[in-house]
Specification:
The chain has four helices and nine strands, in the order βββααββββββαα. By secondary structure, the chain is of the alpha+beta class. InterPro entries: ComK.
């Protein structure tokens, strides 16, 4: 790990460049070690606090996002979260989010993952960062697949809504009746000049 103590940040919201948020202990308190595509930061807040704050930043609550996951795919335990679906910001926890050792991982940035041993998974991110995470590969794969399903369902709903919106607005083009109205106005003007 690079020395990131000089990269201390008070405020942090998840961005499309965030790879993962890991807990790290300083002075007996849990902080967050944030990995981005090209940088790393330390925040004095716990990973779950960063996730909650990020949901709020994008106009919803963590509880609302959890409920959305339950409604869409029926998952309530270790639920993946769509922080901002339009920017592909889908994250999943490696364990119960209430546990201090929970790591939040971005679906979008995972390149590959492999079994390291019975309780660890080696994750290669698209920026070539490799991290050993304390989660069995079967559990990691399960969390990964749940998040893929959540993303697919949500994107499908968004696209369906966009299609309905497009259809609604494309069918409200000027109709023949309004075209006749403009002809009538022209005719009326022509007649009034006589």
């Amino acid at each position: 790990m690079n020395d990131v103590t000089e990269n201390l940040v008070e405020e942090y919201e998840i961005t499309p460049y965030t790879l993962m948020v890991k807990p790290v202990t300083y002075g007996g308190k849990t902080h967050s070690h944030i990995f981005e595509m090209d940088d790393e930061y330390i925040s004095p807040f716990r990973p779950i606090d960063i996730i909650k704050k990020s949901c709020n930043y994008f106009g919803t609550s963590y509880e609302g996002r959890k409920e959305g996951t339950r409604q869409l795919i029926g998952i309530t335990h270790k639920a993946p979260i769509a922080i901002n679906p339009t920017s592909s910001m889908f994250f999943f926890p490696t364990t119960s989010p209430l546990r201090p050792q929970c790591i939040w991982v971005s679906l979008e940035h995972i390149d590959t993952f492999n079994r390291a041993d019975n309780s660890h998974t080696s994750v290669l991110f698209k920026n070539h960062l490799q991290e050993l995470l304390p989660i069995s590969t079967s559990s990691f794969e399960n969390q990964y697949m749940r998040t893929v399903i959540l993303k697919d369902k949500l994107i499908q709903r968004i696209e369906e809504t966009d299609r309905k919106y497009f259809y609604l607005h494309s069918s409200t083009r000027p109709s023949k009746a309004s075209e006749r109205h403009s002809n009538y106005t022209r005719y009326k003007k022509f007649n009034s000049e006589e």
